[in-house]
């Protein structure tokens, strides 16, 4: 699971790109040799991207420029699981204390929305329902003896009772609502008894009707549905990869309208590249982060 404490290795850079999903043309928006930033979100007006780095949240124009810190009102250091409300007025973040916070941009005053489920339970946010009423998150439970389970939960965006949608020993992650609210997309190892074979799935918001979407030898994480509901972009790791580690050769892939799978970009990245939805509002562009190491 993500942490805010990761830094760049000697000679490594963080590079923020936008790629056109029809032409594959890439635009470098920002690069840094000092701040390891991650997980771009687009603002609903399409004018800015949000990324996290060093436990903070930053905003940057899509045309490029400097990272500008977004005040979080004293929230503990955040990780790369952050999403915007559909109206763009609130950012929801996962913090390193294991909780989810809502921060309205207008006031900058944070409010914890996750419940206290004990010190051995952590919340990792991935999605907001299209009407803004519910959050989809991964609950990580560290059991006695060290066993770890990760399951899909939802909860009211204003705080309230959690609903657990999966209850199994398989690693589950990346839970995100479809734009029409009919599905929650996620990745899981439920299709294989061998660790290191995550594939993409979706289910109804009540946890029923689970469908498998990808079936290949690579390890597929973080399915993100385009705002028009027509395409799914995700990060594909090499065969046998355990979890979603940093500093790997990965491929950003897209499932097209007709179900065909196509490579969009190959890069050195992984953790932080595209953990949360990074689609532009026009469904024509995707943002991602690469972490090349150069002499």
Automatic annotation (TrEMBL):
InterPro entries in alphabetical order: 6-blade_b-propeller_TolB-like, WD40
Pfam families, sorted: PD40
Residues forming coiled coils: none
Organism domain of life: Bacteria
Family according to the record: Belongs to the TolB family.
Record-given protein name: PD40 domain-containing protein
């Amino acid at each position: 699971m993500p942490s805010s404490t990761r830094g760049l290795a000697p000679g490594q850079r963080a590079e923020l790109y936008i790629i056109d999903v029809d032409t594959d043309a890439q635009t470098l928006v920002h690069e840094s040799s000092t701040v390891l930033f991650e997980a771009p979100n687009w603002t609903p007006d399409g004018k800015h991207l949000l990324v996290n780095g060093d436990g903070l949240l930053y905003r940057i124009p899509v045309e490029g420029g400097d990272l500008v810190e977004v005040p979080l009102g004293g929230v503990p250091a955040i990780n790369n699981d952050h999403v915007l409300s559909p109206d763009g007025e609130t950012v929801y973040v996962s913090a390193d204390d294991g909780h989810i916070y809502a921060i309205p941009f207008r006031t900058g005053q944070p409010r914890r929305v996750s419940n206290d489920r004990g010190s051995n339970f952590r919340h990792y946010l991935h999605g907001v329902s299209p009407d803004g009423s519910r959050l989809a998150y991964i609950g990580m439970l560290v059991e006695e003896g060290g066993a770890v389970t990760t399951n899909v939960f939802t909860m009211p965006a204003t705080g309230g009772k959690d609903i657990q949608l999966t209850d199994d020993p398989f690693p589950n992650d990346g839970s995100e609502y479809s734009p029409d609210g009919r599905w929650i997309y996620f990745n899981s190892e439920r299709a294989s008894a061998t660790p290191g074979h995550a594939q993409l799935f979706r289910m109804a918001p009540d946890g029923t009707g689970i469908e498998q979407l990808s079936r290949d030898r690579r390890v597929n994480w973080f399915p993100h549905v385009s705002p028009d509901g027509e395409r799914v972009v995700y990060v594909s790791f090499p065969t046998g990869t355990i979890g979603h580690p940093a500093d790997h050769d990965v491929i950003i892939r897209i499932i097209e309208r007709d179900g065909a799978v196509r490579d969009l970009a190959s890069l050195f990245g992984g953790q932080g590249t595209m953990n949360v939805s990074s689609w532009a509002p026009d469904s024509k562009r995707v943002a991602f982060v690469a972490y090349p190491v150069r002499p």
